[in-house]
Amino acid sequence: MTAHPFADVRVLVPVTSARREMAERLRSAGATVDEARFIAIEGPSDPAALADAVIAWCDGEYDWLAVTSRNAVLAMHRIAEREGRSLTEPQPRSRVATVGESTRAVCAEVGLEVSFVPQGRQSAAGIAKELPEGEGRVLVPLGNLAAPTLPRGLARRGWDVDQVEAYRTVDGPGASAETVAALRAGEFDAVLLTSGSVAERLASQCADVPVSTMMVAIGGTTAAAARAAGMRVDAVATEPSYDGMADALAAALAAKGDR
């Protein structure tokens, strides 16, 4: 690979106030990056319920923490720190199941040892399918828009599941009028779709993206949400990670004939 594999490529990259890593990564690889805050992350609607769940986890009341979002891990970590506790207190007896490079990385940042990652689908459905059957308690912190796939799947496998809202995904300011106009005019080579919420928000602003612009989704769930919102999807990352998105973007551009 060259030092700047995405030179002369213009990409629209969703970001949040706390997450701009993919945009910076593509800039470093030579791309011209336009950022847009399609979504924002806010605290849960019931902070006391999340705080109670975090303390119960720290007290060792759960056998597993099943988490698929870095936002959920960070929300729990902030509460634990505020209470003078650590999410690592119940380990190694209590174990962590997760998916995705980003969530695994933030688990490592807060000291959590990950014991289980599914071999197949890197998603909530993957954990629900592959985590062994059991009779203990599982804590599942989710965003407000998450489907009940994980808690329902684990309950079907015999686990006693407590689901708690860890954060809320709300609309961000979205793309600027200039960015939307450039998107409609086909001035972008690609758009990254990093979540179903991002895809839905983009569709509300510009559902008619020209076919010359490659639409790249981070995973199958995001791709399905994008299609449900009326958007085309040209490529789906095989791994829900920055590497996976970069590889899918490169493949999509190559298929288009731009690389």
Description:
This protein has 259 residues and is of the alpha/beta class. It is 38% helix and 23% strand. It has ten helices and ten strands. The chain has helices at 21-28, 47-58, 70-82, 101-109, 124-130, 149-156, 177-184, 196-205, 220-228, 242-256; strands at 10-14, 32-42, 64-67, 95-98, 114-116, 137-143, 160-174, 190-193, 214-217, 235-236. Strands 5-4-3-6-7-2-1-8-9-10 form a ten-stranded mixed beta sheet, sandwiched between helices. Helix 1 links the parallel strand 1 and strand 2. The longest helix is centred in the C-terminal third of the chain and has 15 residues, at 242-256. The mean pLDDT is 93.
- Please report which band the strand proportion falls in: under 5%, 5-15%, 15-25%, 25-35%, 35-45% or over 45%: 15-25%
Q: With helices defined by DSSP (H or I, 4 residues minimum), what is the helix count?
A: 10
What is the H/E order?
A: EHEHEHEHEHEHEHEHEHEH
Largest sheet: 10 strands, mixed
Number of strands: 10
Structural class: alpha/beta
Alpha carbon gap, first and last residue: 12 Å
- Fraction of residues in helix: 25-40%
Strand line-up across the major sheet: 5-4-3-6-7-2-1-8-9-10
Average pLDDT: 93
Radius of gyration from the CA trace? 19 Å
* CA-based shape: elongated
Low-confidence stretches: none
What distinguishing features does this structure have?
259 residues, 38% helix, alpha/beta, ten-stranded mixed β-sheet, 10 helices
Provide a brief overview of the structure.
38% of the residues lie in helices and 23% in strands. It has 259 residues and is of the alpha/beta class. Helix 8 runs parallel beside helix 9 (220-228).
